[in-house]
Amino acid sequence: MAIPVESIKSRFPIFALHRELVYLDSAATSQKPQTVIDTLTRFYQSGNANIQRGLYELSAEATRQYEVVRHQVASLIGAGNPKSIAFTKGTTESINIIASGYLKKKLQPGDNVVISAMEHHANLIPWQQVCRQQKATLKVIPVTGTGDLALQELDRLLDSKTKLLAVTHISNVLGTINPVDEIINAAHKKNIPVLIDAAQSAGHYPINVSQSNIDFLAFSAHKLFGPMGTGVLYSSEPFHSQIDPFIFGGGNITNVGFEQTDFMDYPHKLEAGTPHVPGVIGLGTALEFIEQLDRTATVDHGIALSVYFREKLLALGGFTLVGRPAKSGSIVSFTSETIHPHDVAGFLANAGIAVRAGHHCCQPLLDSMGVPATVRVSFSVYNNQDDVDKTMEALEDLKKFWA
Amino acid sequence: MSSDLNKLYSETIRLHNDSPFHFEKRTGGQALKAYNPICADRFELFIENEQDKIKSLYFHGFGCAISKASTSVMVSMLEGKSSGEALTTCRRFLDSIDQKISDNRPLPEEFTAFSAIADFPERYDCATLSWKEMKKFLESKP
Q1: Whole-prediction pTM value?
Q2: Is A361 a catalytic residue?
Q3: What is the SS3 string spanning B50-119?
Q4: Strand, helix or coil at A170?
Q5: What percent of chain A has pLDDT over 90?
Q6: Residues whose CB falls within 8 Å of the CB of residue A273, separated by 6 or more in sequence, listed in order
Q7: Which end of chain B has fewer beta carbons closer than 10 Å to its terminal beta carbon, N or C?
Q8: In chain A, which residue's Cα lies nearest the Cα of B6?
Q9: Residues B74-84: pLDDT tens digits?
Q10: Out of A347, A349, A372, closest to residue B62 by CB
Q11: A interface test, pick of B8, B19, B35, B39 with most A CB neighbours within 10 Å
């Protein structure tokens, strides 16, 4: 079933202010519905108080609203216990917490961490750095020419010295949807915990941490219609006590002396300092927005648009798709045979079409595919076939311009 | 739409993009990296000095039309110059992009070819990438 794009789009005020905007960059950040923007304004206008430390009504209410979102997030990802949800700055911080607060003390010289070649720098550099510090090795699942993970290599890569496997659910460059269940099963057979980077999938694609036995899950609010600067770290219960605070300060302690400090339990021990309270409450509003969508139809809509885009692009000629994964979502990367991605994206920008050009924080992936940079388009609930058609017209003009 | 872009991609820029000057890898001299991690432009500048003079200057790599043309212009203008002259040229080019030229001395056509960058601030880094690296290199010379 199709989704009512026009009525959904009308809930995003940016499109009323930029009527000609064709926004094909939701993989970088989604646009925000009015309700999320209203939540942020309302918090500062009528509900502003710091959480947890006040006995007065405003503080109690801010705390209540903040904590309610833990339940909403738990429900979104199928976590039985809302206390498994920690609020962070975003996917990057969530992954860094596991790298520094959990993995580092477990890694001995000679151990290894396994990632894939299609990881965003945020799911690569934290592991790379902690491996360097601990004299451990970072091992990489290769990516095939089609942009799929070479999973036949997985069993060989995972060994008795592997202390963690970290892999993305959906590639932010190729759009590949990875078979996380299969990957997790392979790792768990060898008692290796798994972190899933759900930056591109959470809120959009079905993911259930309980059914899939996910140990750690990281994502950001801003890619699922919520505010920037807010993210989530899910950790399954056996790991709660094994994750140490990543930053220190007020708000995450039970007892402080000059010699030592006792920390609160997970998740509060990870939330030192004043968190982005309206951001978290705004994430709750974003989740309410998502709950109103037909989730299956929304996924199908994104996939259908990228299939349509690929077909049209190939018919246009002169462009090459980067990756043709077996299963892919609402992200497409491509290159021109003669025009640099930056010049393509600049030309599209001039036609009011917002896309992204570059290595998309996946430099090693593109290096391994022999592509210095790509143009990336990504679709969301407010996009339709018209957006693709306008992009094709502009690409046709681009070809003439450079002919 | 196209008229703005025609100004941005001026004749000189298109010529240098299509047929860049001294666009090849060289060994033996010094190699400078002009990388922009944001847009993935990656050029290498190959410099061979003879006493205080830039005896030969080549470049190679990957970048958009603006960055490629700007590097090509730079290579063609700086080869044969002394370090001091080259530094003065780099500063003048960057000042012209920043619209900070206060004297009446005419600017070479290779500089004015980039004047539309003022209307495309998101392409500023493309135009200045290699010039800034070269300026830093020349300023660090004893």
Answers
A1: 0.94
A2: yes
A3: ECCEEEEEEEEEECCHHHHHHHHHHHHHHCCCEHHHHHHHHHHHHHHHCCCCCCCCCCCHHHHCCHHHHH
A4: strand
A5: 96
A6: A247, A249, A250, A251
A7: C
A8: A401
A9: 999 999 999 99
A10: A372
A11: B39
Asked if A372's CB is within 8 angstroms of B64's CB, the reply is no
What is the rounded distance in angstroms from the CA atom of residue A59 to the CA atom of residue A53? 7
Where on the phi/psi map is residue A263: left (φ > 0), alpha (ψ -120 to 50), or beta? beta
Contacts of B1 in chain A (CB under 8 A): 350-351
Bond preceding residue A267 cis, omega within 30 of 0: yes
ipTM: 0.86
Spatial separation of the C-alpha atoms in residues A314 and A91, rounded to whole Å: 34
**End-to-end Cα spacing for chain A:** 41
The distance of Cα A236 from the centroid of its chain, to the nearest Å, equals: 19
Q: How far is CA A101 from CA A71, A138, A186, A250, B32, in A?
A: 24, 18, 25, 18, 38
**Interchain CB distance below 8 Å, B122 and A342:** no
Q: Hey, are the CB atoms on B64 and A346 less than 8 Å from each other? A: yes
Residue B62, chain A, CB below 8 Å: the answer is yes
> Residue A373 and residue B68: Cβ atoms within 8 Å?
no
Query: What is the full DSSP assignment across A17-57?
Result: HSTT-EE-BTTT-----HHHHHHHHHIIIII---SSS--SH
Kindly list the residues from chain B whose CB atom is less than 8 angstroms away from the CB atom of residue A373: 39-40, 62
| Positive or negative torsion for Cα A15, B64, B79, B15 | negative
Structure tokens at A278: 């309206």
